């Protein structure tokens, strides 16, 4: 009977998520009957390009820098309680990530896990740059010089294959985020390639889990409007999915946060465009018929996902060199601070443009309106800022050379002695930029494969 | 002469919540009423035209509103809302994560006899 329910928890919703989130999820999963899984989603579009660069410097690296922080605290408990781990923390080097996991197991002295490596998402191994560039990008923008990475979202089937091969841990590079959940469900329930409605339900479950605590009250709290208990210890989600695709979303025991129809609705629509056609490698998800209902304390039932045939193409993210971003900030506070901040901004703008650089600049006064402003147009709905206050002048530039970025930061620094009265708190940040574009590739060009390391390999 | 005040002007934030996401230079923002009964008011007042006007200073070129009566909720997809998107924007907020609250700043007219109903459900959300 228990085989009709699968429990899947999430321990990270992005690279940089809480390192202690997985513990309560594992402790809760350990009390459940039936197949149990823990996923970590750690691979944003640019993260993989950074990993690719790291691998070029050191062939052993290029997996997620967070792999160890996520795996080490829970590995022994997962292996002892038959909780299988599925994650895209393989990034640009799933084999390297798998080897590191085996080392961690040896270091902590637990049993040697059977680790599956899913590869085949690297488009550059099967298609040359010229052919990649012949594709039209989804965004309509050209692919720039200096391609760093081209990885294809390969879907859930290779993950299911890895699990069928007995993996305790599945290390993937690029795949769709929901595939981390759909893969285990395909393995447990044997959903066929054309079971569109159940595949859609599994994809929706994955979409709900993939951002971690974004479905359990985090990225939600708005005091006085949407109050969330104990956000400092927000619990990460655990979903229970049935063979027919019914989903119940809950969270780890003895944690903060909340799971309500409102938290679930915000996550359902997160990064969703046409709700009748959410494209993935495995199915096209239609959520227009989805409804949610509070089923228990901190448990929400989600039903009504429908599926349509998967596309014949797979999305591929191309990452390429994007020049430099230079940013620097300085603060003005107290009487007449706004006028002093505005003067600082004028000085910076005047000196930047006197250089005759054709780089693109932006100057903000943080504390008035900044993020709501357009590139050169202020936000019309902004309230008049107070003449006194606590304001921070921000200068930013996007440019091809590191020098131009450094120059702008130096100009902000020079305000210490050469700018308006009372400037303080200078900070700078110079970052190499990676740009991305997406193309659609014939799915038959990719042949994902699975290898095993560790126990009985 | 008597003036009858039959509606109260509030902000969308008083009766609905939402979240932004990004893909390239396109933003999507959900609008979810605290009370299901407020959904029809959102359909009437939170229109594609008004959202396009709200994002005009950012260079937005088109808005599509998707209706999800089952949840109920609206989903807005705003083209060219992100000053080039995470690739090229110089905005402090590369992904437009804060923009759900710009949308929730939109004024709405609430019938006086429904204000209590439409604003309840906050806090225990």
Summed up, the domain count of chain A is: 2
- Sketch the topology of chain B as an H/E string, one letter per element: EEEEHHEEHEH
Order of helices and strands of chain A: EHEHHHEHEHEHEHHEEHEEEEEEHEEHEE
Counting DSSP E segments of at least 2 residues, the number of strands of chain A comes to 18
Which key terms come to mind for this protein?
heterodimer; A: about 450 residues; alpha+beta; Alpha-Beta Plaits; ten-stranded mixed sheet; five-stranded antiparallel sheet; 18 strands; about 30% helix; globular; B: about 120 residues; two-stranded antiparallel ribbon
Q: Quick recap of the structure?
A:
The complex is a heterodimer of chains A (457) and B (125). Chain A is an alpha+beta fold and 457 residues long. Chain A has twelve helices and 18 strands.
Outline the fold blueprint.
The complex is a heterodimer of chains A (about 450) and B (about 120).
Chain A: E1 5-12, H1 22-30, E2 36-40, H2 45-57, H3 67-71, H4 75-80, E3 83-87, H5 94-108, E4 114-119, H6 129-133, E5 147-152, H7 157-164, E6 169-171, H8 179-189, H9 196-209, E7 237-242, E8 247-251, H10 261-268, E9 278-279, E10 284-286, E11 291-296, E12 299-303, E13 306-308, E14 313-334, H11 337-354, E15 360-366, E16 389-399, H12 402-418, E17 424-442, E18 449-454
Chain B: E1 7-11, E2 16-17, E3 20-23, E4 26-33, H1 39-45, H2 48-54, E5 62-68, E6 73-79, H3 99-103, E7 107-111, H4 115-119
Antiparallel strand pairs in B: 1-7, 2-4, 3-4, 4-6, 5-6
